[in-house]
Amino acid sequence: SNQSGSAGNCLFPGAFNPVHQGHLLMKTVAEQLTGLTVDFELSIHNVDKPCLDYFSIKDRTQQLRAHGNTVLTNAPTFIEKARIFPHATFVIGIDTLLRIDQSQYYGSDSRRDAALAELTALGIQFLVFGRLNEGAFLGLDQVEISAGLAARCKMVPEAIFRQDISSTTLRANAAQAADATRPGRL
User: Model confidence over 65-105: pLDDT tens digits?
Assistant: First the structure.
């Protein structure tokens, strides 16, 4: 696996709760499009979710182990990831791209603009996968993001990748199935 900070890293950040076919297909497509090995990146801290405990880290890294290398970081934001892995390509979904462009994650528009400029200076690229949103496929052509960020992005065409899978839906279905099989339920 590449050393931290070396040119040519391709990283797929995520919570992977759970790992599903959509994640695995994204990894495969990203490897085919970039010619690079894609490593999963799991951050202990996440800007939108609780900090992972030891058991969650162990469970998720075990799920990922069969599918490639996992890099464990304490880098909740993309600017922090970029400082650890300059010149990297990050494999992301369109929803993540929209969050990267939102000033609420930086505290102000000017801080966001400075962070996006630093991503450019660090040579960061984003390989962006679309997703189904309210019945329509959402890709780069359907969203408005700042020009500096858009210049760092390459969209995976819908014809190459389209997986209408949501981790949230999978977790809800698993919980429902567990409830249905509990003793004492009719």
Answer: 999 999 999 999 999 999 999 999 999 999 999 999 999 99
The separation between the first and the last C-alpha atoms of the chain, rounded to the nearest angstrom, is: 51
* Domain interval for residue 169: 10-180
Please report the DSSP string for 31-100 in residue order.
HHHHSSPEEEEEESSBTTBPPPPHHHHHHHHHHHHTTS-EEEE---SHHHHHHHSTT-EEEEEHHHHHHH
Closest CA to 101 of 114, 93, 112, 110: 112
Tokens 């490897």 belong to: 31
How many Å separate Cα 56 from the centre of its chain?
17
User: Is the dihedral angle over the CA atoms 69, 75, 78, 83 positive or is it negative?
Assistant: negative
Question: ω into residue 76 within 30 of 0, thus cis?
Answer: no
Using a 10 angstrom Cβ sphere, with 0-12 exposed, 13-18 middle and 19 or more buried, the burial of residue 163 is middle
The three-point CA angle 100-168-103 to 5° equals 15
Q: Which of 122, 64, 120, 87 is nearest to 2 (CA)?
A: 87
Domain tally for the chain? 1
Residue 167 included in any domain: yes
Q: Is residue 4 domain-resident? A: no
Q: Is the whole-model pTM more than 0.70?
A: yes
